[in-house]
């Protein structure tokens, strides 16, 4: 559905996007991540035909973004970070205007507007003035305008920015539902939202692609590269050094850190690698005379992956690209 090859964009002497290449198949919900200034919004604006590129190619639904810009725009629904709304208009009238601007035939406009209103949960608000709606409902109107012409692709830039937790959850559920009918590219700084919503994640840093895979695949790769961390709570009647030595003998263990918690309770943090590390450590602790109260392996999160792959970026450097 989306093909990007060697995409590069310069603003003056600064490269916002550098040799970016990726594909998005039909029906996939893709999370697009990166620090401020990494090139996320620039890439989205190029795909929507809003700005041009310095070099490279991009296609949407088989149409070239630069040579067939009008055809691409017919097939793309775009929600920028600040929803483009006319606050003095009523919801239904605004969506009818969006149909007109996007070339939807007059005979189909009523059905398209009704579908967008229903899909975005705006049935009870269709005749209300947009400016009188809450921020969360205005965001729903923004989503409705992005789907009213039934596009193949939805491009959503920070769709939950500024929403409270309840509104964020509602919008996330709505996006997940829209993902069943559209190919979606979603940019967000809320990594838990991306993990819950997206089947695949692209991470860019300084305009370059640095990570590509499902959230679980990216976490697994990072875990393999830096090892696992297992935390244990033990009861000891004897010497802690005996247990520490026993844990060190487990295959794949790199380090063991032991600290007392009081009342014969000890906290042990072990780093290492191995497909059965937690089970092997539990067995070794029991054999060394310890009672095992709790064992848990720290799971690598999407946040860990993001920070690892973008560690060289200075927080907040430059304007959002």
What does the model show?
The chain is of the alpha/beta class. The chain has two domains: 2-221, Rossmann fold, CATH 3.40.50; 227-296, Alpha-Beta Plaits, CATH 3.30.70. It has helices spanning 40-47, 69-74, 91-101, 106-119, 135-147, 165-178, 191-197, 215-226, 240-248, 277-287, 302-309; strands at residues 2-11, 14-24, 29-33, 55-60, 63-64, 76-79, 153-157, 183-187, 200-205, 208-213, 228-235, 253-262, 265-272, 291-298. Strands 6-7-8-3-9-10 form a six-stranded mixed sheet, with helices on both faces. A four-stranded antiparallel sheet has the order 2-1-4-5. The protein has a four-stranded antiparallel sheet with strand order 12-13-11-14. A hairpin with a 2-residue loop joins strand 9 and strand 10 (208-213). Helix 4 (106-119) packs across helix 5 (135-147) and helix 9 packs antiparallel against helix 10.
Spatial ordering of strands, largest sheet: 6-7-8-3-9-10
The radius of gyration is: 25 Å
Overall number of strands:
14
- Helicity range: 25-40%
Give the low-confidence spans: 313-321
What would you give as the CATH superfamily of the largest domain?
Answer: P-loop containing nucleotide triphosphate hydrolases
Give a quick precis of the structure.
The chain has 321 residues and is an alpha/beta fold. The chain has helices at 40-47, 69-74, 91-101, 106-119, 135-147, 165-178, 191-197, 215-226, 240-248, 277-287, 302-309, and strands at residues 2-11, 14-24, 29-33, 55-60, 63-64, 76-79, 153-157, 183-187, 200-205, 208-213, 228-235, 253-262, 265-272, 291-298.
């Amino acid at each position: 559905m989306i093909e990007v090859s060697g995409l590069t964009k310069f603003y003056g002497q600064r490269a916002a996007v550098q040799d970016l290449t990726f594909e998005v198949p039909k029906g996939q919900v893709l999370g697009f991540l990166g620090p401020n200034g990494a090139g996320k919004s620039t890439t989205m604006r190029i795909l929507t035909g809003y700005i041009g590129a310095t070099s490279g190619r991009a296609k949407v639904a088989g149409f070239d973004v630069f040579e067939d810009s009008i055809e691409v725009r017919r097939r793309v629904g775009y929600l920028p970070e600040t929803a483009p709304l006319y606050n003095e208009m009523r919801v239904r009238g605004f969506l009818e205007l969006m149909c007109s601007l996007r070339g939807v035939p007059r005979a189909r406009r009523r059905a398209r507007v009704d579908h967008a209103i229903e899909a975005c949960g705006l049935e009870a608000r269709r005749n209300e003035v947009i400016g009188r709606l809450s921020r969360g409902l205005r965001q729903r109107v923004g989503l409705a305008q992005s789907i009213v012409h039934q596009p193949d692709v939805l491009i959503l830039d920070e769709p939950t920015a500024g929403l409270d937790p309840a509104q964020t959850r509602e919008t996330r559920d709505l996006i997940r539902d829209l993902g069943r009918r559209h190919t979606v590219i979603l940019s967000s700084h809320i990594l838990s939202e991306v993990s819950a919503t997206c089947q695949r994640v692209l991470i860019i840093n300084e305009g370059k692609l640095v990570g590509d895979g499902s959230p679980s695949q990216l976490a697994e790769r990072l875990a393999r590269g830096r090892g696992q961390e297992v935390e244990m709570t033990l009861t000891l009647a004897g010497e802690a050094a005996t247990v520490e030595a026993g844990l060190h003998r487990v295959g794949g263990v790199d380090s063991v850190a032991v600290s007392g918690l009081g009342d014969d309770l000890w906290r042990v943090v072990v780093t290492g690698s191995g497909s059965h590390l937690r089970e092997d450590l539990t067995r070794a602790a029991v054999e060394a005379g310890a009672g095992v109260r709790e064992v848990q392996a720290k799971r690598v999160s999407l946040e860990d992956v993001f920070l690892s792959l973008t560690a060289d970026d200075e927080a907040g450097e430059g304007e959002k690209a």
